[in-house]
Design brief:
The chain has 13 helices and 11 strands. It is an alpha+beta fold. The chain folds into 3 domains: about 110 residues, Triger factor/SurA peptide-binding fold (Orthogonal Bundle), CATH 1.10.4030; about 100 residues, Chitinase A, domain 3; about 70 residues, no CATH class. Strands 4-3-6-5 form a 4-stranded antiparallel sheet. The protein has a 4-stranded antiparallel sheet with strand order 8-7-10-9. Helix 2 crosses helix 3 and helix 3 crosses helix 6.
């Protein structure tokens, strides 16, 4: 009887080890008392690639691995903190949360799970991820919602500031500094600038070179933080930016300790309005085919002329800037009226556009409730970001074979 039990135990352990190897594989990291396995990480990578609409291959997996691992570690930290604070959720709350995030009716939850399984994604892993995020959101609401207050004075200040900015220009630009190593060492600085400009002429992006050559480097900032109102610029900088076209790079500018070069990314006029574009889009699956299009025959005020067989053209009127994809908006913003954009390569389709008209539509200014909600959200997010940063800093994290 003892021998039979021993055989059974051995068989059970072998079976369990096969199953565990399939789901567990190996340790990637430990976060406090929680483990991160290669299986966890692989499934999260698969989810990330799916959301980014990227093919699941080795190259793409390697490109997102570090970012996904960092997010997975944060997920463990969030869930651990929520558990410590005795935060919980019901099954119905989790279904509701999933339906909002993935845009399906609550009644179709089982269909959603079947779809996930068909995509070869572990449903339990996905639900674990959603559960952690839901617990974290509930914890943040419990911790911060009662301590944030927005005063009437703050709302009035926002209204006053917006009124003062109306009609003025804001600039979004990058700048790179070339600082002299000594007071009289201008020749060395000039050689550095010449090398920078030579590499720029070879097609290397301004942003890439800024990180390589600048004494300070170009910081990665949220776009909303990089807009500078013309009133906050000195007269020299304001004059330089006002003369640059979108995407254009300035001449070398003398500063107190060296030189700088500026690239104008975007500019906009502050106001309660939306920009609308009207243009003709000419497209083909083949880049060479667009070269055969006679651009002088394409006129905004006339019908579209006959084009080569594999080239299509369509007139598009009054499209709001926010409805355009980023790649098209970037090219359109750099195009002058009655001119043609650069070639746009988007999802294996090649296009260029002729910009015909730019209009603005007036919008209602935000009301006091909208301003209060915006200020509340900003304050809430600031507290949440500080909170998770401190938790991350104090977490006991150990990596294996990283």
């Amino acid at each position: 009887m003892r021998k039979l039990s021993l055989k059974f135990i051995i068989l059970f352990l072998f079976s369990y080890s096969v199953f565990a190897q399939e789901k567990f594989e190996a340790l990637v990291a430990t976060v406090n008392s929680n483990v991160v396995t290669t299986y966890d990480l692989s499934q999260r990578i698969k989810l990330a690639l799916k959301s980014l609409q990227l093919e699941d291959n080795i190259k793409n997996r390697d490109s997102v691995r570090e970012k996904v691992l960092d997010l997975l570690i944060l997920e463990k930290i969030k869930k651990n903190e929520a558990t410590k604070n005795e935060i919980s959720h019901s099954d119905d709350e989790l279904v509701q949360f999933a339906s909002i995030l993935y845009n399906f009716p609550k009644e179709d939850f089982e269909k959603f799970k079947m779809y996930i399984e068909e995509e070869k994604i572990d449903v339990d892993i996905l639900l674990e991820q959603l559960s952690s995020e839901l617990l974290w959101k509930k914890l943040l609401r419990e911790k911060f919602s009662s301590i944030i207050t927005i005063s009437e004075r703050e709302i009035n200040q926002v209204i006053d500031d917006e009124e003062k900015k109306q009609g003025k220009v804001e600039y979004n630009f990058s700048e790179i500094f070339f600082e002299n190593t000594s007071k009289n060492d201008l020749e060395k600085t000039k050689k550095k600038i010449d090398k920078f400009l030579a590499l720029l002429d070879q097609g290397i992006s301004f942003e890439t070179l800024a990180k390589k050559f600048s004494n300070t480097g170009e910081q990665e900032l949220n776009e909303s933080l990089t807009w500078t109102l013309e009133d906050n610029l000195d007269s020299e900088m304001k004059e330089i930016l006002s003369k640059l076209k979108l995407g254009e790079i300035s001449q070398t500018i003398k500063t107190k300790n060296g030189y700088k070069i500026i690239k104008l990314k975007k500019k906009r006029r502050v106001g309660n309005s939306k920009v609308k574009y009207s243009f003709i889009k000419i497209s083909s699956m083949f880049d060479d085919s667009l070269g055969s299009v006679i651009k002088s025959s394409i006129k905004c005020e006339e019908d579209i002329p006959e084009l080569p067989e594999d080239v299509t053209a369509v007139k598009i009127d009054d499209v709001i800037s926010g409805d355009l994809s980023k790649i098209f908006l970037d090219k359109i913003e750099k195009t002058e009226i009655n001119s043609f954009s650069e070639i746009i390569n988007n999802n294996n389709e090649f296009s260029f556009i002729k910009l015909c008209r730019i209009d603005e539509s007036k919008l209602k200014p935000p009301n006091r409730d909208q301003i209060e909600n915006k200020l509340y959200a900003e304050r809430f997010n600031q507290l949440a970001n500080t909170f998770i940063a401190n938790l991350r800093k104090n977490a006991n994290i150990k990596f294996f074979n990283k």
